[in-house]
Write a structure and sequence with these properties.
The chain is mainly alpha-helical and 135 residues long. 79% of the residues lie in helices and 0% in strands. It has four helices and no strands. The protein has helices at residues 9-34, 42-65, 70-90, 99-134. α1 packs antiparallel against α2 (42-65), α2 (42-65) packs antiparallel against α3 and α3 (70-90) runs antiparallel to α4 (99-134). It is elongated, with a radius of gyration of 17 Å.
């Protein structure tokens, strides 16, 4: 097996953060599936948690390996984060969802997606720079 250099520090930190997001998505899905609350629509939360976990886990692996597919997986992860943030108020009964709840969910979705899009730009620039040095 060939020995490869460790990824740059920015890639390692990003991969660790994406792994944290993946574990969080799976943890929420497992908690909702094993301890269903009658007040929540558990199917929405479980689906969104699994979607977030799979996409961010895939992105973490692609970022760690410095693969070309890191950019699209980060963008898909941004979409999954938006879905997850909006699934939270959707899973609650209509009585408990206020305008403030929706504003908070939308702002969380925008910040989550913005961060992952900036991370995708960072990964693309670093990957392009490392490819230019090799050529």
């Amino acid at each position: 097996m060939p020995v490869t250099k460790a990824p740059p520090l920015g890639f390692r930190v990003l991969a660790a953060l994406l792994t944290w997001y993946a574990l969080s998505g799976f943890t929420i899905a497992v908690l909702v599936l094993t301890r269903p609350q009658p007040a929540l629509d558990w199917r929405i939360l479980a689906g969104a948690g699994i979607f977030l976990g799979v996409t961010t886990g895939t992105a973490a692996l692609a970022v760690w390996r410095r693969e070309r597919r890191a950019l699209p997986t980060l963008l898909i992860s941004a979409f999954a984060a938006v879905v997850f943030c909006l699934a939270l108020p959707l899973s609650l009964p209509r009585v408990h969802v206020t305008r403030g709840t929706w504003i908070t969910a939308i702002l969380g979705a925008v910040m989550f997606a913005a961060f992952l899009c900036v991370a995708a730009i960072y990964v693309r620039l670093r990957l392009d720079a490392s490819r230019e040095r090799r050529d």
